[in-house]
Amino acid sequence: MKKLLVLGVGNILMMDEGIGVHAIHELLRQNWNKEIDEQIDLIDGGTFTQDIFYLFVEYEKILVLDIVKGGQTPGTIYRLTENDLRQNQKQTLSLHDIDLLDSLSMAKMAGKTPELYVLGIEPETINWSMELTPTLAELFPHYVELAKQEIMMLLNHKSLNI
């Protein structure tokens, strides 16, 4: 059993909505060292539904890369936990948070309780285009770097020795 699933979600046809998928593909191009590589899986979840909950039971921790609609300035970075998503009474976060919680609940019913984390970024525009907005395109390398740092933290590694 691997320790960490990194799941990039979003719709790449809808501008900033696809940043999680773009980020996972960038992370797949990285040269991870063998020790790290043996502990993580990087998966393009696209516009997943709870149909992929079966993946959740295979991991100790899950890191989701996605947009988060928190009402802040475009490009604002959010680090959220399962509790943060559950306490979001107004459902103002990403369109995917409900599916995440449903998938996590199903995994728990199957006897597994992975820890859930979301590294999100506030979108500027969600509209038909395969390009990120200039704002998020400029911040994209920083977002990917933060994702790498989050991966290392969740694996309890002190440095980005990848």
List the helices and strands and how they pair.
Elements: E1 4-9, H1 19-28, H2 34-37, E2 40-46, H3 53-56, E3 61-67, E4 77-81, H4 82-86, H5 97-109, E5 115-121, H6 134-154
Parallel strand pairs: 1-2, 1-3, 3-5
Antiparallel strand pairs: 4-5
Task: Give an overview of the whole structure.
This protein has 162 residues and is an alpha/beta fold. Strands 2-1-3-5-4 form a five-stranded mixed β-sheet. The protein starts with a strand and ends in an 8-residue tail after the last helix. The protein has a single domain, classed as HybD-like (Rossmann fold, 3-Layer(aba) Sandwich), CATH 3.40.50.1450. The protein is built from six helices and five strands; from the N terminus they run βααβαββααβα.
Structural domain tally: 1
In CATH's first tier, which class applies? Alpha Beta
The biggest beta sheet is recorded as: 5 strands, mixed
Question: How much strand?
Answer: 15-25%
- What is the assigned CATH homologous superfamily? HybD-like
Identify the strand order in the major beta sheet.
2-1-3-5-4
The shape is globular
Question: What is the helical fraction, as a range of percent?
Answer: 25-40%
Distance between the termini: 21 Å
Provide the structure class. Answer: alpha/beta
Query: Which stretches are poorly predicted, pLDDT < 50 over at least 5 residues?
Result: none
How many beta-strand elements?
A: 5
Mean pLDDT: 86
What is the chains' assembly state?
single chain
What are the secondary-structure elements, in order, as H or E? EHHEHEEHHEH
Task: From the alpha carbons, calculate the radius of gyration and give it in angstroms.
Answer: 15 Å
